[in-house]
Specification:
about 30% helix; Protein-Tyrosine Phosphatase, Chain A; alpha/beta; globular; Udp-n-acetylmuramoylalanyl-d-glutamate--2,6- Diaminopimelate Ligase, Chain: A, domain 1; UDP-N-acetylmuramoyl-L-alanine:D-glutamate ligase; 3 domains
């Protein structure tokens, strides 16, 4: 592909038809090779043009740059073919889609969005749909072979590159977690989505969006797309009607509910005879007069909604109810999502990513129904993020746990003591224990808990690090839990 075809209709600069074929396009000047195009976007802190000379040294023959903020850089310093583009970030998805020859049109892409459940649902579907791949919080790739990503939804260029790789690998379906940031920033603008799943909406990311209304508006962008063939929503969420209201007339609408709610003009899936335990979930799934028994080893009340969600997606994909249910019976837990340890003569320990008020409430209220003894919760809140949810999470822990241990999560650049104090303002009657060293907090609660007690280690889930003052230190809740349980057995 030549520059003229890549930027046709998108650039402020004049285009030459006889330009050399592009060998690659990158956002990182360190990854530039001979014949590559360096794309210099305007970031929140600095402009990519600051790295233009480095890109040229590495062999860039052309630089596509964001017009805004480019005035501070002298054009003659660039020393290569230059192309100015207004609103480059918004157009980056289309540019990458052109370069990689529209990979999302060659594979079924199903977008999964919502506050909670994105990772669980996408990872469940990865287990259930043959020849599938995933892009999300846990990484991108095939089942059991995930490569790490920096964001739930990667940058627009990486998204298209990964999709192109999946086409090469002959994948038939891609499950993509689509974050509100990704939608708002246009990272998936040129992705062709066959289907979309809405799990729920509750407080999160208000440090970025500013209001719940703006947060919802970002999510709705996934469902208003003209190419969408089916949409699946959680009928138990008050926003589900708003989600379906923005879909085009040709979109087939599906709704699932654990409470018996139905949505007009949609295929409705419900459940009956539900039983929860520390060993899993049993329920009868109902659709169009059909009933089928599901017996899953997945733990947690809220996971019933996730199981219903993936069954509904399978139905929308043409699976029979019997086949969808039989597949669900073999689902394995997702790392860091109600991941169970212990049991027997030791307490049950659940590691979960719950880092929002809604998620923490669902985890604890679910356990409260079938934990016969004490419930402990160990949690903190992330730094440099929505501060308003901290007291809310403290209040939830006070109400639903017998003992709350407040610890550090990812303080980032904030003072860890301030985060803890913000959480403590949510406690009114009970006294929370504070052990800021996360490893010590986990070890302490496991050492004192008894057989039959339930312990929730919340907030980090799959994360294998702690972000403290700009440094990511290796840390795994799972490894600490396993070691603490081993020491308890030896003791």
């Amino acid at each position: 592909m030549i520059i003229a075809d890549l930027l046709d209709g998108l650039t402020d600069s004049s285009l030459q038809k006889n330009m050399t074929d592009i060998r690659g396009i990158v956002l990182d000047s360190r990854k530039v090779k001979k014949g590559f195009v360096f794309i210099a976007i305007a970031g929140a802190i600095e402009h990519g043009l600051g790295y233009a000379n480095k890109a040229i040294e590495n062999g860039a023959f052309a630089i596509i740059y964001e017009a805004k903020g480019s005035e501070a850089f002298s054009p003659e310093l660039l020393g290569c073919y230059k192309l100015k583009v207004t609103d480059l970030t918004a157009k980056l998805s289309r540019i990458a889609d052109r370069f990689y020859q529209s990979p999302s049109k060659k594979v079924d892409v199903i977008g999964v969005t919502g506050t909670n459940g994105k990772t669980t649902c996408s990872q469940f579907l990865l287990q259930l749909i043959p020849a599938s791949a995933v892009i999300g919080t846990l990484g991108w790739g095939e089942k059991g072979e995930l490569k790490q990503t920096q964001n739930t939804t990667p940058d627009a260029l990486t998204v298209q590159q990964v999709l192109a790789d999946f086409v090469t690998l002959k994948k038939q379906a891609v499950l993509m977690e689509v974050s509100s940031h990704g939608l708002d920033q246009g990272r998936v603008e040129a992705v062709n989505f066959k289907g979309a799943l809405f799990t729920n909406l509750s407080r999160d990311h208000l440090d970025y969006h500013g209001s719940m209304a703006a947060y919802l508006e970002a999510k709705l962008k996934l469902f208003s797309r003209s190419e969408l063939q089916f949409a699946v929503v959680n009928a138990d969420d008050k926003n589900s009607q708003k989600v379906l209201a923005v879909t085009h007339s040709q979109v087939q609408c599906w709704a699932f509910s654990v409470k018996g709610n139905e949505i007009d003009n949609a295929e409705n899936i419900s459940v009956a005879e539900v039983k929860f335990s520390l060993k899993g979930i049993t329920a009868v799934v109902c659709w169009r007069g059909q009933k089928v028994l599901v017996q899953s080893k997945i733990v947690g009340d809220f996971n019933l909604a996730n199981i219903l969600a993936v069954i509904t997606v399978l139905l929308a994909q043409g699976y029979s109810l019997d086949l969808a249910a039989s597949k669900v019976n073999n689902l394995l837990p997702v790392v860091g999502r109600m991941e169970r340890f212990g049991g027997g003569d030791k307490p049950f320990v659940f590691v979960d990513y719950a880092h929002t008020p809604d998620a923490l409430e669902k985890v604890l209220s679910g356990l409260r129904k079938y934990c016969r003894q004490k419930i402990y919760v160990v949690f903190g809140c992330g730094g440099n993020r929505d501060q308003g949810k901290r007291a809310e999470m403290g209040a939830i822990a006070e109400r639903l746990a017998d003992q709350a241990i407040i610890t550090d999560d990812n303080p980032r650049m904030e003072a860890a003591e301030k985060i803890v104090n913000d959480i403590l303002t949510g406690f009114v009657t009970k006294q929370a224990e504070v052990i800021q060293d996360r490893e010590q907090a986990i070890q302490s609660v496991i050492s004192r808990a008894s057989e039959g007690d339930c312990i929730v280690i919340a907030g980090k889930g799959h994360e294998a690090y702690q972000d403290i003052q700009g440094v990511k230190y290796k840390f795994s809740d799972q490894l600490v839990v396993e070691q603490a349980l081993l020491e308890k057995a030896e003791y």
